[in-house]
Amino acid sequence: MNNDDDKDPCHSTRVGSILSLLAGAAKEAADQLGFFPSAGASARDALADLLGVLVAAMALSLWNRLHRSRPDSGHTRRVLPV
Prior knowledge:
Blueprint: H1 9-33, H2 43-69
Helix pairs in contact: 1-2
């Protein structure tokens, strides 16, 4: 089993995005079933959830690229013996 997935920021972003979309979908379903005092599920709320996830994923991607490109970030690369 490879533990490199734990350190991959893209993997974390994907998992977080999927969980966020699932939470938004569950909230919309609960709205439609009347569990929350609201007007019910709406396409506008679902679109706002999707847009929020996309903006957050793009911000994380940009942060990771900028953070990785700095030479003084203090990160070291592992060198495997050949």
